[in-house]
Amino acid sequence: MNKLMFAMTAGAMIASPSQAQLMDADDLNTFCQQKHPVVVGYVAGVLDRWSRDLHHAEMSDVVDTENNRPESKVPVTEKIRANVCDPDTITLEQQVNIVCAFVAANPKEHGRSADMLVQLAMQAKWPCPAK
Q1: Consecutive sets of 10 residues in the chain, 131 residues long: mean pLDDT of each?
Q2: What secondary structure does DSSP assign to 5-29, as a single string?
Q3: For residues 117 and 110, what is the distance between their CA atoms, to the nearest angstrom?
Q4: In this structure, is residue 24 part of a structural domain?
Q5: Does 108 fall in a domain?
Q6: Rounded distance, CA 104 to CA 61, Å?
Q7: CA 11/CA 114 separation, integer angstroms
Q8: φ, ψ of residue 128 in degrees (nearest 5)
Q9: Three-state DSSP class for 113?
Q10: I need a surface site. Which of 19, 25, 42, 109 has the fewest CB within 10 A?
Q11: Which domain holds residue 77?
Q12: Could you tell me if 81 and 25 are in contact, meaning their C-beta atoms sit under 8 angstroms apart?
């Protein structure tokens, strides 16, 4: 397994610079169908990036009014979470299952990047309530 992951990582690093997107929706769908462990790592990476971006926004002037920051900055943090209000108790395995089910059920979305499908899956499952 470690050799496979190393080969995939090395291949991605050697890929042509003109190839901006490392995984597209078709790749994600294939990995989901194969129940390949790369899906878990990919979904975890996308979700970790959201958390990192949100943390950086909160550490700057781009935070919400609960933290006594200008209200005009609130839309940026909302965009980072992309209208996703998932429960704190959700597991990574459940999130991966949600993403894979969404990818399988929405072939018309396969022209998008894989990270966009992760976002769309989470939005469909846990949209934030209207304010």
Answers
A1: 46 42 85 94 87 65 54 54 76 94 93 88 85 63
A2: HHHHHHHHHHS-TT---S-BHHHHH
A3: 8
A4: no
A5: yes
A6: 39
A7: 18
A8: -70, 145
A9: strand
A10: 19
A11: 37-131
A12: no
